[in-house]
Amino acid sequence: MFDADRYSFLTHALGANRNLSILDIGANPINEPIYALLRNQELCDVIGFEPQKVAFDTLQSQKKSNETYVNAAVGDGSTQDLYLYEMSGFTSFFKIHEGAVATLRGFWKGTREIGVVPLATKPLDSIEDIQNVDLLKIDVQGAEYQVISSGKHKLENVVAVIIELRYFRLYEDEPHFGEIDSFLRSRGLVLHKFIDTKSGLINSTRAHKLRPRRANSQAIDGDAVYIKDITKLGDFSLDQLIQLALAADGVVYSFDLVLALLDELVKQGVMKDAEIDAYSEMLPQHLRVPS
Fold it and tell me: Per the confidence metrics, is the pTM higher than 0.85?
């Protein structure tokens, strides 16, 4: 639902004087990131961290002028064992939970351990390359809590976080999603929406008789969006109102959120009410009540 013309109109109406700044922790390009369309048109600035050399080299070979990548791991500042698995997307500072492998049918695929590498980690607050962050995207296979808790200062002004939440433990001793939710709420960020939820088929003696994609019922994990608490719009700076509006339109497609933010900007005398009407007319047709 990204529309370059709509986004350009919004940018000018908001008087935005800079791109949305995105920090991507665990930028392994297995899948296109949610902000890919914005990135590909150089409408956001991205700094990404990826400790796996092969994945980092791929990012380096494909990057545009608005992207910077660092071959390093973010964490609590200690040196930790990085467990490498047959499928690189499972690579983690945590060992695979064998109980999960046994419980979920077919889950053994890709989880064979192929090596362990000691890796020094850097706390977010210690990384000079990171300056202003509007949106944090993080997918680090169980280490999300130690990453976000290492950046209390660097993430102080963040307006949105896209984070993978785990509902069914895949790794030994990894923090549960409740711990992450509590921490983010303590930082003034609240759950806004779920982007996707991945589920698995529970193993049994008759599991082979079921169609995995239709019968799988065990929620495993999924990406969720947290945003700065919009019940307190008066606490937002002008820049935070603008950048959250850009993220809501260009990344997470929460157009009702955009409209609420624009109302606040009209109230503050930053925008004209007619500009909201013009923006509304540019929203996807299927979202609008027929006139």
Answer: yes
- What 3-state DSSP class applies to 115? strand
- Confirm if 154 and 75 have CB atoms less than 8 A apart: no
Structural domains in the chain, CATH included, are 4-287 (3.40.50.150)
**Strand (E) or helix (H) holding 12:** helix 4-14
Pairwise CA distance, residues 56 & 193, whole Å: 29
Q: List, in sequence order, every beta strand (DSSP E) within the chain.
A: 20-25, 44-49, 67-70, 73-74, 79-85, 113-122, 135-138, 160-166, 189-194, 198-200, 218-228
Smallest CA-to-CA distance from 89 within 56, 138, 55 is with: 55
Instruction: Return all residues near 257 (Cβ < 8 A) that are at least 6 apart.
Output: 192, 227, 230, 244, 245, 248
**What's the rounded mean pLDDT across residues 180-208?**
95
Residue 26 burial (CB count, 10 A)? 24
| Contact by Cβ (8 Å): 252, 34 | yes
Helix, strand, coil tally for the chain in percent (to 5): 35, 25, 40
SS3 of 127, please? coil
Mean pLDDT of 255-267: 98
Are the C-beta atoms of residues 250 and 183 closer than 8 Å to each other?
no
Q: How many CB atoms lie within 10 A of CB 179?
A: 13
